[in-house]
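User: I'm designing a mutation panel for Peptidase A1 domain-containing protein and want to avoid disrupting the core. Could you give me a predicted structure to guide residue selection? Please restate the sequence first so the numbering is unambiguous.

Assistant: Good idea. Sequence first, for numbering, then the predicted structure tokens:
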Amino acid sequence: MSPLYPYLLLLVFLNVNGFLWVPSVCQESIRLNMIHRHHPKFEKKTGVKAPESPMERLQQLIRLDEKRIEMVFRMREHRRKVAEAVVNMTTTEKQQKRQVLSLPSSVQLQLYSGSYSYTNSYVTTFRVGTPPQRLLLITDTGSALTWANCIHNCSDCSRKHRRRRIFDADKSTSIRSIPCSSEMCQVGLQEFNAYYDYCPKRKSPCWYDMSYSGGTTVIGFFANETVTVKRRNKGHTRIHQVLIGCTDPTGNTDFSEADGIIGLGYSPYSFAYRAAMQLGGKFSYSLMDVLSSRNVSNYIVFGEDNKKMQMQYTELVLGKVGTHYALNVRGISVGGVMLDIPPYVWDVEMGYGAILDSGTSAFALPEMAYRPIVDALKAALEGYPPVTVTGLEYCVIVDNTTTFDESRVPKLVIHFADGATFEPPVKNYVINPGEGGRCLGFMPTPWPADSLIGSFMQQGYLWEFDLINGKLGYALADCT
């Protein structure tokens, strides 16, 4: 055997971001069930009751969408400011930043999220530590950091923090804090507002201090920890060296419905990236109709989804629009006619573009894209009595003596730059909240802003994120 063989083998296991990972031999997938906030199990786990009527449920989701849109707009503004700061950096400063860790452009951007933005999302049971401690965390494709309400070196925590679920770091034998003197803290984790100026000892933990648009601040320290997840068939898989944030639970009232967040965004530090790279480089999810009364959970799979279906593929743009999963959109047609939407609305190179966002319900677009779409579709709702749903411009009531004629609705198609198309069923954009209601499921956003393809448009499909090859797969699916 050549003396160089061990080193060549090591290079095979280094991914493009310079992080060491060992491919799974059997490539067995793992699965997490996701529960929407209006699912009966959500009330059982959190004590938060969903609105009784379908129309009230829709109204609540749209109110939360407005907060989410505000958050994404602030994120875009923050990305712009960071990009300007990078442009103004000296050549030496840029080289030093690159040499420490070869990170994609997405992790050059500081995370700025909104506490209200997460209340529209899905939750899942997550087991952290050794032995595993069960937590209820929010799944969000727009976030990269996984964090949980956590206690550490706290002698009176049982009296001080009266929470049903909290991660006790002192009871885990596998947690390892990230030193504040490390290059990871001083460079890599700056996207999470890591600070290291106060470092009394070299091994003192690396801390973070994140501000949220709802006014909440979360403070904690970074650590590597072991996560235990169920396999698709049976048994469990342990994923080691997962970056988590141990967050002080004091004052986190805006996150009272859950115990923290699972970062599913694109970053070498996100749980999605870590789990996907251990299981073949892919993850996928499928969402049920969020206004459906069916008692069915959604799911997310890391690794290959075993369901056999005819997939379509388009380019998955990574690292261009923050930690989001962006798409190269060429345009949108309604009734076979391409709408007059300025091309720069979809320009991911400028930091805009369309993103798949599990934390938004409606399809949110800048005004210059929103207006042509609703103008092309609103004729399908004419003749029915209008009803007011705050945040949605076109809603009607179909009374008991008539039925809604879906054939009147022209087909909407999203056209991608590589020639692929996405043609959702009418129910994904003419929303049926029940009680005879019908609404165009679109919301306007301020410009400049990203276009958010929310869960209404995504429902009923399997979405496969291939992080190695930069591809998005999608196919109609029974999301059970």
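For picking mutation sites, this is relevant: The first helix runs from residue 5 to 12. The first strand starts at residue 30 and ends at 36.
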